[in-house]
Amino acid sequence: MRIDLHTHTDRSDGTTSPTELVRNARAAGIDVLGLTDHDTTEGWAEAAQAAEREAVRLVRGIEVSCRYAGAGVHLLAYLPDPDHPDLVAELERVLDGRNARLPATLERLSALGIEVEVDEVRALAGDAAAMGRPHVADALVAQGVVRDRAEAFDRFLGPQGPAYVNRYAADLVAMVGTVAAAGGVSVIAHPWARRHRHDALDADGLAALAAAGLAGVEVDHQDHDPATRERLRGLARELDLVMTGASDYHGTGKVDHELGCNTTDPAELERLLSLAAEASQAAGRVVPEVVGG
Ligand code: AMP
Ligand code: ZN
Ligand code: FE
Ligand code: FE
């Protein structure tokens, strides 16, 4: 059984529709697929229909933009009630922050002599509910300023780049609580990724999060080297956290993140799903279905 629990569609910054994502997952031999667009559940319904047709089990999730000790951190929320008022309100704040950042980013680019219009980015973002730097990167590619998204992040949009603008993100510990209140489970995404600040969420930070209700940690991710994966595995065992592995697939938007390039052990998925069932019972909600398959 092949399980890939972290993927994106064009409802955020992936390049495939939810239907294409599920088809690609089927073709890649994925049996259980986690859909985790940034800050939105917009792709869930279409992906669920495709999952029924393609006989792929779909675990519906969100990769929520969070902040911890001043650093940006991503939290994978699996199977929360998408209509829970606190969750909805917080995702709206994050999406508003994304929209507010765009003009500021374009002003920075303009100061560098690169003129990009808001409408250009919006057109490239198409169906995306969560517009972000990758779509600005696409505009730079379209203008021939850079070759690909990676170069746009390296030269302009990354945290040290001249066009970087901060935006609102949810408080990480509070969001773990919100996800639980919505009957879902939280897994910290790529906590020690190369491009993130490792000192923000160190071993003590992960222990504090585990105490606050974190269910799991994404260990096998392309941004973790083998030594990092080993250290995270040890820590997850110590803290009794579920260990996941995933591709963080973005279609053609991110190289070296092919579907199934990292996978989750079936026993770990079962643990995660039983924690989700407990969370939804505690939240007084019907246990959410993993659809398809
Ligand atoms: P934003 O959500 O607007 O803050 O943009 C951050 C997102 O851009 C990340 O979650 C990644 O999905 C994507 N990203 C970051 N670095 C790169 C890169 N070098 N190449 C392609 N996509 C990237
Ligand atoms: Zn992304
Ligand atoms: Fe991420
Ligand atoms: Fe991601």
Summarize the structure.
This protein is α/β, with parallel strands linked by helices. The chain has ten helices and eight strands.
Mean pLDDT: 96
What's the gyration radius in Å? 18 Å
SSE run = EHEHEEHHHHEHEHEHEH
Low-confidence stretches: none
In angstroms, what separates the terminal alpha carbons?
A: 12 Å
* General form: globular
- The percent range for strand residues is 15-25%
Q: What's the total count of β strands?
A: 8
Roughly what percent helix? 40-55%
The small-molecule ligands in this entry are: adenosine monophosphate, zinc ion, fe (iii) ion
Q: Major beta sheet, specifics?
A: 8 strands, mixed
Going by helix content, strand content and strand pairing, the class is alpha/beta
Helical region count?
A: 10
